Amino acid sequence: MTFETKAKLGYVLLAFLLAAGMAYAIHRLSSLADEQVAYLRAEEREVTLVEQMRWQSELLISAGRGYIISGDPALFAEVQHAKRRFDETTRELRSQSLSPVGHELVTSVQQSAADFAGIQQQLLDARRRGENGPQLLRRFDTELLSRSRGLDEALDGLVEYKESGLANQYAKESKARRRLEVGLFGLLGGLVLAGVGIAWYFARLLGRAFRTEEQALDASRDAIATRDEVMAIVAHDLRNPLGAIMMRASLMRDESDVLKMRDHAALIVNTVARMDYLIKSMLDVATMDAGRFSLIPGPCAVDVLFEEIKELFEPLAASKRVTLEIERDHEGLVVHADRERVLQVLSNLLGNALKFTPRGGHVTLTATRDGDRTLFSVRDTGPGIPPEHLAHVFDRFWKEEEQVFGVKGTGLGLFIAKGIIEAHGGRIWAKNEPGGGARFSFTLPLAIETRIPTATTVSRQR
Fold first, then answer.
1. Are 423 and 361 in contact (CB under 8 A)?
2. CA-CA distance, 229 to 415, in Å (whole number)?
3. Local structure of 281: helix, strand or coil
4. Residues 324, 311: contact at Cβ < 8 Å?
C-alpha cells in the first residue's frame, strides 16, 4: 500500500470517527432533551388539570351561590356546565400515568370533589323545589364551603406532590446531564487520542520517508562527489602519461638511432602499464561498489607467491637501496585464495612500503600460521602513519597521503586491497611499529584440501 493510499485511508478514518462521535453526541443530547420535554409536558398537563379543577370548583361555588340567591335559570345552566367540565377534568386527571402516591392523591381529590358535588346538587335541587333562599344560603355557606376547603386541601396536596416530583426529576435530569457530559468528554478524549495516534503514525511515515529521501540525497551527493573526484584523478593521472606517450611517439618518428627508439618504446610500454593499472583500479572499485567483485579461489602456495613478489620488487628495492627481506615460520603454507588478487594486494603493500622507506631502510614480508589462517605482514622502517590517520588509510581516495608523506597517489590501492581481503573472508589492518615504521597485516584462510578453481562472485556489503 502506498503512502498516499495510507494517508487517504487514515484521514477518512479520522473523519469517520469525528462524524460518528458528533452524531452520537447529537443523538444523546436530542434523546435527553426529548425525554425531559415529554416529562415536563406530562407534569404540566397534570398541574393544568389540577388548576382547572380548582378554578371550576370556584366557578361552581360562585354560580351556585348566585342561583340559590336569585333562582336565575341561566345561572343554573352555568352551574351544570361547570359541573360537567369539573367531572371531565377529574376523569382526565385520573387517566394520567401516575405513581401509586399520585393515584392516592387523585383518589382523594375525586372523593372530595364527589362530596362537594353531592352537597351542591342537594342544595340546587332544594332551591328548584322552592325552598327558602336564605336558609339554603346558610347551608351553602356552612356545608358546601367546608367541602370546598377539603377539595382545595386535596388539590394543594396533589400540587405539592407534583412540585416535589418536578424537583426530583430536575435533580435526576441534572445527574443524567452530568453523566452525558462525562461520557461526551470521554468520547472527545478518545477521538483526540485517535487523532493523535493517526497523526503520530503518519508523522512517523513522513519522518521515515524524509530520512530515506535525505539518505538518498546524501548518497547522490556522495556519488556525484566521487564521480567528480574520479574524473579529476583520471584527468590528472592519465594526462601526464598520455603526454609522455605523445612526446615519445613524436621522438620515435624523428629518431634514426635504433637504441634510442628502443628506450622510447620501453618508456611507452611502462607508461601504458601505468595507465592500465589506473583503469583496472577504477574497474575494481566500480565492481566492489556494485557487489559484483569476482574471485577465482583455489590452493595457493605461499612460497610460490613470495618468489613471484621477490622477482617483481627486488630490482625496485635495489634501485632505492632498500633491503627487502622475506620470512616465513615454516615451508609448505597453502592458502585458499585467488592467486592474482593476493599478488595484487602484496604488490600494493610492498609498493607503498618501498615508496615511503628512505634509503638504507628495510622492508620485511612475513607469513605465519595463525590457527586455520595465514597471517601476512609487510613491515617498513619509514616514517610511519600519524595516529589520527590510521583509521582512514583504507578509505577510498584517502586525501592525506600527499600532505603527510609528500607523495601523491590515486588513493585507491589500500581501498581495493581491503575489498579483496574481505571478499576472501579475511581481515586487513595497519599499525605503527614501536621503533618506527608501519606494519600492514592481513589474514587469508588456509587450504584444507585441493579444490577445482571455479569462478565465484562475492558480494560486499558496503
1. no
2. 15
3. helix
4. no
426, 445 in Cβ contact below 8 A?
A: yes
Q: Is the pLDDT of residue 104 over 80?
A: no
Mean pLDDT taken over the chain: 77
What grid cell was written down for 155?
388539590
Could you tell me which residues come within 8 angstroms of residue 280 by beta carbon, excluding any fewer than 6 positions away? none
How many other β-carbons are positioned within 10 Å of the β-carbon of residue 65? 20
Pick left, alpha or beta for residue 424 (phi over 0 → left; psi -120 to 50 → alpha; otherwise beta).
Answer: alpha
| Cell 500500500 belongs to residue | 1
- Pairing mode, strands 323-328 and 362-370: parallel
Determine the Cα–Cα distance for residues 204 and 3; give it in Å rounded to an integer: 11
Judged by phi (left if over 0) then psi (alpha if -120 to 50, else beta), residue 121 lies in alpha
How many Cα atoms sit within 13 Å of 165 on the Cβ side? 18
| Half-sphere CA count of 107, side-chain side, radius 13 A | 7
Rg of the chain's alpha carbons, rounded to an integer?
A: 57
Q: What is the pLDDT of residues 34-48, one digit of tens each?
A: 777 777 777 777 777
Instruction: Indicate the burial class of 415 (C-beta count within 10 angstroms; 0-12, 13-18, 19 or more).
Output: buried
pLDDT tens sequence across 111-149: 777 777 777 777 777 777 777 667 777 777 777 777 777
Say if pTM beats, i.e. exceeds, 0.90.
no
pLDDT band at 306 (very low <50, low <70, confident <90, very high): very high
Which CA distances in Å does 127 have to 72, 124, 142, 179?
A: 11, 5, 16, 63
User: With contact defined as beta carbons under 8 Å apart, do 389 and 404 qualify?
Assistant: yes
Say which residues have a Cβ less than 8 Å from residue 306's Cβ, sequence separation at least 6: 326, 328, 365, 367
| Burial class of 364 by CB neighbour count within 10 A (0 to 12, 13 to 18, 19+) | middle
SS3 256: coil
In tens, the pLDDT along 364-422 reads: 999 999 889 999 999 999 988 888 888 888 887 665 555 444 445 566 789 889 999 99
The answer to whether the beta carbons of residues 358 and 425 sit under 8 Å apart is no
Q: What pLDDT is stored for residue 231 in this prediction? A: 59
Coil, strand, or helix at residue 380?
strand
